[in-house]
Design brief:
The structure holds two protein chains of two kinds.
Chain A: E1 2-9, H1 11-17, E2 24-28, E3 44-51, E4 61-69, H2 79-99, H3 104-118, E5 157-162, H4 164-167, E6 171-177, E7 186-192, E8 198-214, E9 217-237
Parallel strand pairs in A: 1-4, 3-9
Antiparallel strand pairs in A: 1-2, 4-7, 5-8, 6-7, 8-9
Helix pairs in contact in A: 2-3
Chain B: E1 3-10, H1 12-18, E2 25-29, E3 45-48, E4 53-60, E5 67-73, E6 82-85, E7 92-97, E8 104-113, E9 118-130, H2 137-140
Parallel strand pairs in B: 1-4, 3-9
Antiparallel strand pairs in B: 1-2, 4-7, 5-8, 6-7, 8-9
Classes of the chains: A alpha+beta, B mainly beta.
Chain lengths: 264, 141
């Protein structure tokens, strides 16, 4: 059983309030199994443990977390591939224009226009390690990393999962690298000890970036905001989904029809 | 001009199973402090003013499940959303500017769900409401 837990964060409001309260909303995919308060900060995820009749676990329960900014680019967009390629493509286009230019004044104009639209040529932004290589607003427009408005378009990042459920060995969270080329990355996942039935608290540490302008330069300072979440672990004996009984049996498939007369 | 993002999270599996988006759509926006109501539900009322730029973005609850927003049916005198796509991708979003403030303007959302592209309408549960005389978003930053 894979539980997907999505956190939606109003990053701009959270930064203004310096608090995640009222600015985080949770949704998961186990509402049909009993999760409650979907769409609210108080959501409780139901983790349905399934055991064999002898008490041994019949299936592993796994939690997956991901956090999105409400104003951030949609998660379905292949950021690390297309947009970075666009960034490189813009630079290549600039090089081609420069190669075809002979007058120094035109060179300066081309560089200025490129900087205005796409940012500095070949920018690696290594001075701002938390920021994406190619920052984009929710509409996909390039945003200068010097623009404080960009804060609202950044996804929050889960940097730790801790608390009672971790300390008591209910969940075993870790940060994993995704094999999916398009997701750029990293995600938090945890297996659940479904023998530990009941309501458990854990804390997500979310990192937001706060821009501050000083003397014309913008500094992006990471802020860690803890956020308490709950899971409710239940346990039941595995049943045959077709028969409702505890043991596997013959699947209720219709017997094959006799071949029609004359059929090949 | 202020901008508000409305993110529509769809439980595609739940919607296809039940045949309805009711309870399987979670709508969020960034105007809670300006008076939006019902954030996180399928009946979001977004506080807007004349000139507010609205952006609708969808997100499936599980990334393996496909969903797209095919249409936004709204009084064109209030807002005329347009479909756009991100550069170099087939991922789309809708964007529109509020032409006039109205106390309440409800709108339909038309989705396409799943690999077979099942069309599903979420009728008149979401709405735009008047921002009133509260400060514009930029003031709160």
């Amino acid at each position: 059983m894979q539980n997907s837990i999505v956190l939606l964060v109003d990053v701009e409001a959270a930064l203004a309030d310096s608090d995640l309260a009222d600015n985080v909303y949770l949704v998961d995919n186990t509402r049909a199994l009993g999760s409650r308060d979907e769409g609210r900060a108080t959501m409780v995820s139901c983790v349905a443990g399934v055991h064999n009749p002898d008490g041994s676990p019949a299936a592993e329960a796994v939690l997956n977390w991901i956090a999105y900014g409400i104003s951030a680019l949609p998660p379905t967009l292949p950021r690390s591939f297309n947009l970075r390629s666009h960034h490189v493509a813009h630079d290549h286009a600039l090089l081609e224009k420069l190669a075809a230019t002979t007058h120094p004044r035109d060179v300066a104009a081309l560089l200025a226009a490129h900087h205005e639209e796409h940012g500095a040529f070949g920018a690696q932004r290594s001075a701002m390690p938390y920021l994406p290589v190619d920052p984009r607003s929710a509409t996909g427009e390039f945003v200068s990393p010097d623009a404080v408005d960009y804060a609202a378009h950044l996804n929050p990042e889960i940097v730790a999962i801790r608390g009672e459920a971790v300390e008591k060995g209910v969940i075993f969270p870790a940060l994993y690298g995704s094999p999916d080329f398009y997701t750029e990355g990293w995600y938090w996942s945890a297996s659940v000890d479904t023998n530990k039935v009941g309501l458990h608290d854990y804390i997500l540490d979310l990192r937001l970036l706060r821009p501050t302008r000083s003397g014309g330069a913008v500094t992006w300072a990471p802020e860690i905001h803890p956020f308490k979440v709950q899971i409710e672990v239940s346990a039941s004996t595995m049943v045959n989904g077709f028969t409702g009984g505890p043991l596997p049996g013959v699947l209720p498939l219709a017997p094959p029809l006799p071949a029609a007369e004359g059929a090949l | 001009m202020s901008q508000v993002t409305i993110k529509l999270m769809v439980d595609v599996v739940g919607a296809l199973e039940s045949g309805s988006l009711s309870g399987n759509l979670f709508a969020f926006d960034t105007h809670r402090r300006l008076g939006s109501q019902g954030i996180g539900t399928d009946a979001l009322h977004t506080a807007v003013a004349r000139g507010t730029r609205i952006m609708w973005v969808i997100a499936p609850l599980e990334c393996e499940a496909f969903v797209s927003l095919e249409d936004i049916v709204i009084d064109r005198a209030v807002c005329e959303p347009e479909l756009n796509s991100y550069p170099g991708s087939s991922v789309t979003y809708w964007i529109g500017t509020v032409k006039k403030a109205a106390p309440l303007t409800s709108y339909d959302l038309v989705f396409s769900l799943g690999s077979h592209g099942r069309s599903m309408v979420h009728p008149a549960r979401l709405a735009l409401i008047s921002l009133g005389k509260t400060s514009e978003k930029g003031d709160a930053q």
